Amino acid sequence: MGTASFLKRVRALLRVRNQLARECLAELLAVFVLILITLGGSAQMVTSCGTKGNILTAYLAGALAVMVAIYTAGGVSGAHLNPAFSLAMCLLGRFPWWKFPIFVAVQTSGAFISAGAVYALYYDAIRHYSNGTLAASGPRETASIFATYPADNLSFSNGFLDQMGAGVMGTALLIVGILAILDTRNNGVPRGLEPVAVALLVFSLEVSMGSNCGCPVNPARDFGPRLFTYVAGWGEEVFKWVEGRGPGEGWRG
């Protein structure tokens, strides 16, 4: 009885009663899970030179990560996971504008922290693969594990068009697809399987629009880890356009 009473008091003490705090913590955890699995799939493939993963396994990891993240926070924060989706909800009047900058900050922070966790998890593998040098370009670059970068044959002009096309269009398709999945007036997805449908939507976008720049449809997913690489030692090049970066045996995630 004493132990049960103690645990009950601990649970009461740790219970978060403020609704905004609950939503922020849920969103932080969900984004952490999303990025941990997504970057982990990329790190496993790159550092093993493709022997323990390929482009499809990395895409699949990212799609399944979305599913797990939605199940993690969907009932508390709505599992936005993405500043673009939060913005769309604001524009549609389904999310208050005053919460938007808070959610963006939480989502970006979750991605930043998760990138650090992936770096710690794959520290030895990254160092071994890169010969101890944290580079954003060259035959043994590893920055592409964490953020999206242009393919070697992509020019600046084509890259700009890709971002205006695939980036904006991909994000728009993602939001339209999610709204369609959640619209009760459509042929409904069986209750509880909505995260699975969203994961399949993300996978379809990745395999159809990821060739040029990695299908950057989530600003927090890209900026948070990119900022981490800058802080962790990859340098200012992670924020620069460099044609022909050359991933060598690796693959930019």
Automatic annotation (TrEMBL):
Question: Which superkingdom heads the taxonomic lineage of this protein's source?
Answer: Eukaryota
Where would you say this protein principally sits, based on its record? membrane
Q: Which Pfam families match?
A: MIP (PF00230)
Q: Where in the cell is it found?
A: Cell membrane
Q: Which GO terms describe its molecular function?
A: glycerol channel activity; urea transmembrane transporter activity; water channel activity
What keyword terms does UniProt attach to this protein?
Cell membrane, Glycoprotein, Membrane, Repeat, Transmembrane, Transmembrane helix, Transport
PROSITE patterns, alphabetized: MIP
Query: Which catalytic reaction applies to this protein?
Result: urea(in) = urea(out); glycerol(in) = glycerol(out); H2O(in) = H2O(out)
Question: Record's Gene Ontology CC terms?
Answer: basolateral plasma membrane
Query: Which InterPro entries does the entry link to?
Result: Aquaporin-like, Aquaporin_3, MIP, MIP/Aquaporin, MIP_CS
The answer to whether the entry has keyword Magnesium is no
Q: Does the keyword Magnesium apply?
A: no
Q: Which residues cross the membrane?
A: 20-39, 59-81, 102-122, 164-182
Q: How does it sit in the membrane?
A: Multi-pass membrane protein
- Report the function annotation for this chain: Aquaglyceroporins form homotetrameric transmembrane channels, with each monomer independently mediating glycerol and water transport across the plasma membrane along their osmotic gradient. Could also be permeable to urea. Also participates in cell permeability to H2O2 and H2O2-mediated signaling. In skin, transports glycerol to the epidermis and stratum corneum, where it maintains hydration, elasticity, and supports lipid biosynthesis for barrier repair. In kidney, contributes to the reabsorption of water, helping the body maintain proper fluid balance.
Please describe the quaternary structure of this protein: Homotetramer; each monomer provides an independent glycerol/water pore. Could also exist in other oligomeric states.
Provide the family line: Belongs to the MIP/aquaporin (TC 1.A.8) family.
Q: What is this protein called?
A: Aquaporin-3
Q: Please give the organism.
A: Lophotis ruficrista
Task: Please name the gene that encodes this protein.
Answer: Aqp10
